[in-house]
């Protein structure tokens, strides 16, 4: 969400941030820094800077568009490529599985983590 952009590409489902309006006091997450398209050059920059780890988020709605049910192999493949590039560059991935961007369908259906079904759905996502 904060880095990858490509909010409507690669089979990604909508997240709660995709409907949040952008404005002068908040960012437009739909593009962000466009890591989805630019990760090879981003990793190269990280390597040139001597970075040895990189923290990033896996977007739940990119790998499981509805937040439950089917997984999106295209989204999983994106993260596999990013991780492979990081490792090849000697940069250790530090992965965050959730950073406030719940899949919109799940948020609408269950109203967030207060519902045990969302906790169970997150567990299934995290296992994958």
From TrEMBL:
UniProt entry keywords in alphabetical sequence: Glycosidase, Hydrolase
Highest taxon of the lineage: Bacteria
GO biological process entries: carbohydrate catabolic process
Record InterPro entries: GH (IPR017853), Glyco_hydro_1 (IPR001360)
Record flagged with keyword Hydrolase: yes
GO cellular component: cytosol
GO MF term set: beta-glucosidase activity
Cited PANTHER family: 6-PHOSPHO-BETA-GLUCOSIDASE ASCB-RELATED, GLYCOSYL HYDROLASE
Similarity remark: Belongs to the glycosyl hydrolase 1 family.
Protein name stated in the entry: 6-phospho-beta-glucosidase
Organism (species): Oenococcus oeni AWRIB429
């Amino acid at each position: 969400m904060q880095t990858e952009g490509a909010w409507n590409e690669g089979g990604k489902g909508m997240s709660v941030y995709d409907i949040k309006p952008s404005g002068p006091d908040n960012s437009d997450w739909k593009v962000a820094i466009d890591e989805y398209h630019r990760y090879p050059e981003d990793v190269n920059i990280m390597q040139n800077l001597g970075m040895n780890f990189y923290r990033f988020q896996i977007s739940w709605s990119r790998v499981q568009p509805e937040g439950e049910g089917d997984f999106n192999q295209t989204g999983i493949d994106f993260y596999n490529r990013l991780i492979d590039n990081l490792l090849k560059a000697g940069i250790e991935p530090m992965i965050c599985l959730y950073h406030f961007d719940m899949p919109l369908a799940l948020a609408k259906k269950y109203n967030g983590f207060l519902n045990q079904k969302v906790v169970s759905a997150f567990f299934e996502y995290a296992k994958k």
